[in-house]
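Marked as duplicate of an earlier ticket. Keeping the data here for the record.
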Amino acid sequence: MKKIYLIVAVFLILASSGCKKYLDINTNPNGPSQADPALYLASIQSQYAWGVQFDARALAPVVQNWANSSTGNAFAVYEQHGYIKGSDASAELFRNVYWKGGFNTIDMINNARAQKKWDIVGIGLALQAWGWQMLTDYHGELPVKQAFVDPTRNVFDYDTQDTIYAIVKRLCLEALTELNKTGDAMGSPLLQRFDLMYKGNVQKWKRFVYGLLALNAHHLIKKASYNADEVITYVDSSFVDNKDDALVPFAGTVAGANPDANFFGPLRSNLASFGQSGFIVRLTDGTVFGSPDPRRLVMLTPSTDGVYRGLGPYTTQSSSVASSSVGVRNLWGSIMATNPGAGGGKYLFQDKAPFPLMTYPMLQFVKAEAALKKNNYGLALTAYTNGVKASLDFVQIGATAPGATPTSGTAIFPFNTDAAINSAFNAQKAVFLANPAVIPTVASNLTVQHILLQKYIALWSYGFIETWVDLRKYDYNSTVFTSLTLPSPLYVDNGGKLMYRVRPRYNSEYVWNIAALTAIGGFNPDYQTNKMWIQLP
């Protein structure tokens, strides 16, 4: 009997103390109990890039980067400043920030804190801040404070945009605190492998955060509290040159259920019926600046008769015209609605082309506008010139940042390998930069039109949200955005008003979060025309 009592006692001791060590079936004695948080990074970064690219089918027509070849195409309604009813078509970034980023980003940050991998904590906070910044500049009010707090919650109140802007700034400052730490378990080998953008380079991540702080502060330019010096200081702490660009690379081999190809590339076949806009053609063919822009040789495609043409907003190009010598080609350079096949395409519209989230030229134009705002014409002209030259290099030489892999040629990823085009580019570049209508010879002659039009060209086909911030800031004014033509007719529900926001995701908000969305007027038929807080004095 005593032996039985002893056995029971030992079992109870094991059960109350060390039993878990031996009996826990969820613990693998041959492997780590926690995954490296770096493993989350590649998915989060690629999904953020794809989110912007998915939504570009809607936003690129709004900002007149591209247009559909026919008013019968599904996304043509965005050229009228409307939307597709009962559809998630323009809210992929919303989905990715809340879901594919969402708790994955939170888990990555929490696991990194537990493992004292402060660099990954900082990167996670930076990505979270970028997601909120892009999303609020795209949609306006958002559920932020209640997001990811209570996993049992299925409805969420919307926060005002001033609150979201403050949260983004706080996250950026927290990210810098973490990225400035040293020691402990920083520098994981897996971070270098799974950080698609910067290969674990903490210095570049800090520059990325300062760039985001610059955008966050500069978007308040219509507010009395706007601080141009703060914007300039942030930019000066951010990207040094094109090698710091935040680029998400793509392997470009798979297009199916688990794609690894650029959303804009021929392999995924998403842009067969989109063509360059008439606006970008006018900005680059000499109509506005007086001399041809060499970037159009790489970015745009002439009709087969050699003339560069573009599509107007909400107009139709018949199939017979599209296939003729005067037809506007699609973004891959092919006859409209035809696909050149895997490996084809041009510029950012290639299967393996990286996608930029933020670039050096973008930030230099921000600095130029901030300096102009405070009447520092010399500083404004210097930053503006830096932006123009860096954009020319980006287009001609190709992407040079770590995220631009695979390696090829002199650039990490070249957008142009054609010797004839490169020769013509150099010849046009010299004339272009010598043109005082492009680079004023007197600093005080620099205008906001110079800055925003050259910024528009530089950001064409990647900086859609930042471009839209600029267009809405000046209410689509064709005096500032020279030669911009507004759509006619506008979307039927708009009441003659232009578009200032994209509606939140249909399947999460209009189906499941009705009360909260109703409270901000989200069910009003003209909700998309409501100006955002950043667009008001």
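See parent ticket for discussion. The mean pLDDT is 93.
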